[in-house]
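Sequence in, structure out. Go.
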Amino acid sequence: MSSTPHDPFYSSPFGPFYRRHTPYMVQPEYRIYEMNKRLQSRTEDLYMASENQLCHIIGNYDDDDDDDDDTLILDSISKLNNDSDNLWWDAFATEFFEDDATLTLSFCLEDGPKRYTIGRTLIPRYFSTVFEGGVTDLYYILKHSKESYHNSSITVDCDQCTMVTQHGKPMFTKVCTEGRLILEFTFDDLMRIKTWHFTIRQYRELVPRSILAMHAQDPQVLDQLSKNITRMGLTNFTLNYLRLCVILEPMQELMSRHKTYNLSPRDCLKTCLFQKWQRMVAPPAEPTRQPTTKRRKRKNSTSSTSNSSAGNNANSTGSKKKTTAANLSLSSQGLGAIPNCSLNPGRDGDLCHSTAVTPSGQFKEKH
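Output:
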């Protein structure tokens, strides 16, 4: 039995090495399922990345018991955790969101309705604040969603979407935030999210009965358990970040210019204002006009109109001649015709009859 030649770039699906699948078109709901799986595996990915780098950090220091070394190691570990967390969220947003994606949240608080829209650069930090507020697990459930396909995008409209978050602090609570989720995916192999709009209608906070039974005799704990730990299903960390985004979102152009050209904040502001002023002062580009094509006049149309007018004139002159001839014939017989037309029919059913006067002065009706 002949064996196929060995391919050095081939990895068996049953082997221990990860093999990236080829791009393929999937259902939009399956992309939400993949996003839920990625959010659940976040802790494992961060743990594996931190463990490898932690061994490298500890190996750079001496084995002597030195307080300075211990302090440096702790500082390096805290910095490592922050860097790893930021890199993970950036990779998460790159995998599931387009470069020009927007995320919108709409809900109603005690002081009125709120609507926050953030851009692509602020989306990773939004998901990060959800976990910083005490959430240990986050996933989305879509029920009875409707899909519509367009030329370059796919729209998913789910009126029964539930965002489920598991809170570990200040107490173990499961929060179900219900609302309407509208997603717009790009119609390509990656199928990333272009627009995300979640309108929150209501939320529920569920506390296990076992915790209530444990503190049944403690009124203070029961009073604390009866208080909500979220506002419309969102933690205070997330709400504060959304309020901050109202200021950060317009400053994205300034921050990107500062990072690219290494200018001072004042110079960045001057440059941006000058460019906007140039756009306002510059006259708008005139649209290109298409050359008009001259149409040739048809000679047949003029001749036909002249013929028709000539025919009408001939008919009118002919009718005039007939009426004058009839009057002359009557006058030659010595009868003067007096027309007497009415809407009432005559004896024979005619609508019009005439009365003639004879030379002797007698009246004679003529139909």
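Check: The longest strand covers residues 153-167. DSSP finds ten helices and ten strands in the chain.
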